[in-house]
Design goal:
The protein has about 100 residues and is of the alpha+beta class. Helices cover about 15% and strands about 15% of the residues. The chain is built from 2 helices and 4 strands. It is elongated and about 70 Å long. Pfam families: Fer4_15. This is Ferredoxin. It comes from Mycolicibacterium iranicum. InterPro entries: Fe-S_cluster_ET.
Length: about 100
């Protein structure tokens, strides 16, 4: 599990530091600070997950890796601007009136 703390969203409730004090501390003004690099070992994931879920402003986010999709991406056909019919009042863009 990897997490990120967005300090611009933090309102200083301190719930994260209560649930997972090994990963969150509070600065001099009471705002959360992430301790470490955000990598959470398996044995501490429950406490950090609880801190993430209980954050009232959702300042803690779980980072997930994007995996390549098996299905190919379908490309969008671009309109043929060279042969665009503009003889009527409006250009035809594969739409019916």
């Amino acid at each position: 599990m990897r997490i990120k703390l967005d300090r611009t969203l933090c309102d200083g409730f301190g719930i994260c530091a209560k649930h997972a004090p090994g990963y969150f501390s509070l600065d001099d003004w009471g705002y959360a600070v992430l301790v470490g690099d955000g990598n959470i070992p398996d044995e501490d994931q429950d406490a950090v997950q609880r801190a993430l879920m209980d954050c009232p402003v959702h300042a803690i986010m779980e980072l997930t890796e994007r995996r390549p999709d098996e299905t190919p991406t379908h490309l969008v056909d671009e309109p043929d601007l060279e042969n665009l019919d503009t003889s009527s009042d409006a250009a035809q863009w594969d739409m019916t009136r």
